[in-house]
Structure formats: structure tokens, C-alpha cells
Design a protein that fits this description.
Layout: E1 16-18, E2 24-26, H1 38-43, E3 55-56, E4 62-65, E5 70-73, H2 89-94, E6 101-102, E7 126-127, E8 159-163, E9 169-173, E10 180-188, E11 192-199, E12 205-212, H3 218-226, E13 233-238, H4 246-253, H5 258-277, E14 280-281, E15 290-292, E16 298-300, E17 307-308, H6 327-331, H7 339-354, H8 364-373, H9 386-395, H10 406-409, H11 413-416, H12 422-432, E18 453-455, E19 465-467, H13 471-476, E20 523-526, E21 529-532
Parallel strand pairs: 5-16
Antiparallel strand pairs: 1-2, 3-4, 4-5, 6-7, 8-9, 10-11, 11-12, 12-13, 14-17, 15-16, 18-19, 20-21
Helix pairs in contact: 5-7, 7-9
The chain binds adenosine-5'-triphosphate.
Length: 555
């Protein structure tokens, strides 16, 4: 095996450790001496290094691996899966990753808005990449043998455990015990709101992501029926990560210092290395989709756009969040693959360093033009170290094949010497975000019905308050950040020849073209006032390929 960057000669044994949270962790094996420089290393042929093998946490909702550990938070993959790239059966079969989605059932009696149906409700259905339709052997079909929401009771009377051949322990609930109440608003995303969930039986918390669902065709209605959905909402129960997202921390604390960036980058890259090692591309890496827990552990979230790709295939669909989107996605001509996450990683590091993504001075579509059509490189702040600058530059290579892989990046000088212990993670996060620990961090839930002003994106997006006319008007004018659309809906479409495999759909209605000056509207509370967060709010996407194609079924 060729040598691989081995300045640090300490070889870690592949060991299993159980951390305080019941997450099993495995360390990387890194024998081998290292070449002199990162470039020497890149020139060596990448070895087929053993990937860290994650294992499921006790609540079965996170995967943790590597050191520092990185978890893949249970996500809305099933509910927001790519419309034109359905999740592959391979990833389902492998069982390496599991995205458990517990959907809300109105049940026989509606519980009202502050008391969502318990995830253990007898009519709940859970979607999983492993076993979306399993039933109990005794014929009880109303319960689902999938992991409980985080913190659910697991007493013998309430659950049955079984260990599958791949080592994943599954829990089967008897579906009648717990009560999850919807609490304060944690945040808003493209498809809905995320609330704190509290289990009054156990005292446990989870995050409840309420996804709005449009079912305007028969297939959609059938889908919803099968999910036992009502009221146009799908509830996804997720592990609650109390630190919130990197995006929120940036809003609250401003740009991160380099040691924090280094520590978080190392963990993100570790997660990408795991995902990419399994040919899975996340496609929406950005601060808002990366959660930080109070122990400084990073969790990748929101796999709604993740996609397993075949060795031979690349993707053509236009997905992602514009400011973090790789040029090849924007141009949408030759397809794209795993390196799109590396580009987005570079953008996310810039976001951490400046609290804004690259090209944030441009409106959404103008930024897309900048990414796709120019040869410009985003500005890299001067105050960063030369290693950090080099790391970012390598991620932001316009030619995807020139970008290092996640596995290679783990040995980049910017992050390779990062102390990889839990103590370091805790210390760095505690020092950087003290209020995460003193109980004052979480701002009060925003009352969107009463907000009085938002700020305009044109010009100085952060400072210009403008009146809000009505919720309807506001909802019609949101900007896109996460955007699953068909290839032919790319805003670049009219400027380039249509790709053969494009669906002929009309331009996406939620994409304001340049000059339209629409108003993105994500007011966030900052120092007691609402300010615009132009990088977050998105239009509620309703796909519209002709004829109500199956891929336009939901959302
Ligand atoms: N599991 C969680 N624990 C704690 N907070 C969460 C959790 N999931 C989401 N949040 C908070 O809610 C916000 C909205 O999350 P959501 O996943 O709906 O959208 P997003 O990822 O921010 O944006 P998009 O949908 O465009 O990708 C996040 O930015 C985060 O602050």
C-alpha cells in the first residue's frame, strides 16, 4: 500500500469505545509514514483505507465514528428524498445508514396543535431505508419495528429488541406509552418548522420537524394515505441537538475563530469521508445542516437530498443551496458526483470564517451566475492561516476532479493534527459558545404571525427594514436555499443548450430571475431586532413537471 500522509506516526488501533452517550466509536487506522507535503500525498495513488465503521447509538438515530466522532443525525431523507433521484435500493439494502422517520398520524382523535401525535401512536408508520414496511410476526401491523424517537422509553414492556445480522439493534415498540408534546420553535427550514419535542412520560426531548405536504394529485394522496397523514403535515422525529446548527451559532456569536473552524472541519470531513466511502453524496452541506451538540460533536443533518450513486453514474439534477452549490451543479451539463460536497465544504468553511457564504453580496440567481459562469474565486479572509487558505482553495477548485477527496483532506495540514479527543471538542465549543451551557442560549420562539418587519436583500441585506404586507405575500417571495428541481429548471437553463435527459418543465416559479428584486424573508432575532437571514429561507417547493410525474408527488 502506498504511503499516505504520515507526519504523525502514531498509529491508532481500530478500537471500539463507547462514549458517555452510548455511541460506539471506532478510531481510524493510520499506519504508514507520510509524504513531505500535501501535494506529494495527492500525487500518490489514494489507498483503499479502511473506513471508520460507525455503529448506531443506543437510540438508534445517530451514527458515530472516527475520533473526533461525527454523527449522522436521523433525517428527513425519506420525506424529502430527491424527486428525480429516488434513494437507491443499494443503500437501503446495506443497512449502513438508517434514517428513521416517524410520521404523524392524526389518529382517531386529533390532539391539537400543541400535542402532536406521539411517535408511538398505534397508527404510526415509520419510514426507513432498511425496512419501510415491516410488520410484527404476530400480525400486529399497526406498530413498526423501527427505532424509537430519541429518548423513547425502552423498558421490556414497551419494546422488543432484536439484533440484525449487521449488528444494528432494532427496537419494536408496543406503541402506546409515550406522549410527545410540541414545544418551542427551534428553527425553520425549506419544508417546514422544527420544534422541540418533550416526552412527558420519560422527560426526554427530541426535535420534531414538521414538513408541509402538498398532495394535489392522486399519487400524492395515496402516499399520504399510506403514511397515515393528515392536515397536510408530516412530522419527523429527530434526535434533539441542543447546540443548534452552525448557521444559528454564526447568527448568535458571529464568525468562528480558527481553532473552532479547524475542529468542526475535521469532524465534517470525517463524516464526508464516511459517506463518500459509501458512494453517498449529501448534496446540501452548509452551516444550517450541520448541528453541534454541547459536547462539541458535529452532526450532519438533513439528508433530504442525499443520494447514493452508482460507480458509473453521475447526477444531473439541480439540487442544493445556491450559495454553497458547486459550479458543475449550476452548469448542469456533464453531471456531478461526490466532489460537490467538497466544494460545499469549502463554502461552509468560508461561512464559518465570515458568517456568510461566498458570494453573499449577490442575490441568489446572480450568485448562481457567479458560481457557474465566472472564473472568480470567492474571497478568502486574510486573517486565516496559510493552511486554512490552502485547504479552502483546494476545496473550491472549479474542476471537480482537481478537488481532493474527503479521505485525502483528512490528512491536510489544516486538520490532520487536530487533537481528536472528546475533551478537545468540549473545550473548544465551550470556550467559543459559552451560552450554550448556561441556559440562556436558546432565543424565545419567534412568533411569525406578529412580526412586523423584514429586511431587503437588495443592497445591504442585513440592515434595511421593510414592512411586511401579509403572510401570503411573504410566502410567495421567499428565496430558495435548498432547491430540488428538475435539471431543466436550472436558472442557467436558458443560457445553455438543454441536456438530453432534461425534463421539459417550465422555469421554476420560485426562482426570481435577475432584476425581479423579490424579497427573501427570514427574519431572525438578533440583539432584539429582526434581521434578514438571506441564506436560509427558501420557498416551499412544489415540483411541477408536466403531467404530475411520480417525482413530483410530494412537496
Ligand atoms: N435535530 C435538531 N436539533 C436541534 N435543532 C434542529 C434540529 N434539526 C433542525 N434544527 C434547527 O432547525 C433549523 C431548521 O432545520 P431544517 O432541517 O428544517 O432546515 P435547514 O436545514 O436549516 O434548511 P433547509 O431545509 O433549507 O436545508 C436548523 O437550522 C436548526 O437550527
Amino acid at each position: 500500500m502506498p504511503t499516505w500522509w504520515g507526519k504523525k506516526s502514531k498509529s491508532k488501533s481500530k478500537s471500539k469505545d463507547k462514549d458517555a452517550h452510548g455511541l460506539l466509536q471506532f478510531n481510524f487506522i493510520k499506519p504508514k509514514p507520510r509524504p513531505k507535503s500535501f501535494d506529494d500525498a495527492l500525487r500518490s495513488s489514494p489507498p483503499d483505507l479502511p473506513l471508520p465503521r460507525p455503529s448506531l447509538s443506543s437510540n438508534d438515530h445517530t451514527l458515530a465514528f472516527g475520533s473526533p466522532s461525527l454523527s449522522l443525525s436521523a433525517s428527513s431523507a425519506s420525506s424529502t428524498a430527491s424527486y428525480d433521484d429516488p434513494p437507491s435500493s443499494t443503500s437501503r439494502a446495506q443497512g449502513d445508514m438508517k434514517f428513521a422517520v416517524r410520521s404523524k398520524s392524526p389518529g382517531p382523535v386529533s390532539r391539537g396543535p400543541t400535542s402532536p401525535t406521539s411517535p408511538l401512536h398505534s397508527k404510526l408508520h415509520a419510514l426507513s431505508l432498511d425496512s419501510p414496511t415491516a410488520r410484527h410476526e404476530d400480525g400486529r401491523s399497526e406498530c413498526h419495528p423501527l427505532p424509537l424517537p430519541p429518548g423513547s422509553p425502552t423498558s421490556p414492556s414497551s419494546s422488543l429488541s432484536s439484533t440484525r445480522p449487521n449488528g444494528i439493534t432494532e427496537q419494536t415498540t408496543t406503541c402506546n406509552l409515550s406522549k410527545w408534546k410540541k414545544g418551542k420553535l427551534l428553527g425553520r427550514g425549506t419544508f417546514g418548522h422544527v420544534y422541540l419535542g418533550f416526552n412527558s412520560d420519560s422527560g426526554h426531548m427530541c426535535a420534531i420537524k414538521e414538513v408541509r405536504v402538498v398532495s394535489d394529485d392522486q399519487t400524492s394522496k395515496e402516499c399520504l394515505k399510506q403514511l397515515n397523514q393528515g392536515e397536510g403535515t408530516l412530522s419527523v422525529y429527530l434526535e434533539y441537538v441542543s447546540g443548534g446548527s452552525i448557521h444559528k451559532l454564526l447568527q448568535e456569536y458571529g464568525a468562528f475563530k480558527e481553532p473552532v473552524i479547524q475542529n468542526y472541519t475535521r469532524q465534517i470531513v470525517s463524516g464526508l469521508s464516511y459517506l463518500h466511502g459509501r458512494n453517498t453524496v449529501h448534496r446540501d452541506i452548509k452551516g444550517a445542516n450541520i448541528l453541534v451538540d454541547p459536547n462539541g460533536e458535529i452532526k450532519l443533518a438533513d439528508f433530504g437530498m442525499a443520494k447514493h450513486i452508482n460507480a458509473s453514474a453521475s447526477m444531473l439534477s439541480f439540487k442544493g443551496s445556491p450559495y454553497w452549490m458547486a459550479p458543475e451543479v449550476v452548469m448542469n451539463t456533464n453531471g456531478y458526483s461526490l466532489p460537490v460536497d467538497i466544494w460545499s465544504l469549502g463554502c461552509t468553511i468560508l461561512e464559518m470564517a465570515t458568517s456568510k457564504p461566498p458570494w453573499s453580496q449577490y442575490e441568489g440567481v446572480a450568485a448562481i451566475f457567479k458560481i457557474g459562469n465566472s472564473k472568480d474565486m470567492p474571497e478568502i479572509p486574510d486573517h486565516l492561516s496559510s493552511e486554512a487558505k490552502d485547504f479552502i482553495q483546494r476545496c473550491l477548485q472549479r474542476d471537480p476532479s482537481a478537488r481532493p477527496t474527503a479521505q485525502q483532506l483528512l490528512d491536510h495540514p489544516f486538520i490532520r493534527d487536530q487533537s481528536a479527543t472528546k475533551a478537545t471538542n468540549v473545550r473548544i465549543t465551550r470556550d467559543a459558545f459559552p451560552r450554550m451551557y448556561d441556559g440562556t442560549r436558546t432565543p424565545p420562539a419567534l412568533d411569525y404571525s406578529n412580526r412586523t418587519c423584514i429586511t431587503s436583500l437588495d443592497g445591504d441585506y442585513a440592515t434595511k427594514p421593510i414592512p411586511v404586507t401579509s403572510r401570503a405575500a411573504r410566502d410567495n417571495t421567499r428565496m430558495i436555499t435548498s432547491l430540488p428541481v428538475s435539471p431543466s429548471s436550472s436558472p442557467m437553463r436558458q443560457y445553455m443548450p438543454a441536456h438530453k435527459s432534461c425534463f421539459l418543465s417550465p422555469p421554476h416559479p420560485t426562482y426570481p430571475m435577475m432584476g425581479q428584486n423579490t424579497l427573501p424573508s427570514y427574519p431572525v432575532r438578533s440583539n432584539g431586532t429582526f434581521t434578514l437571514d438571506p441564506f436560509h429561507e427558501t420557498s416551499f417547493y412544489k415540483a411541477h413537471t408536466p403531467g404530475g410525474s411520480p417525482r413530483t408527488r410530494l412537496f
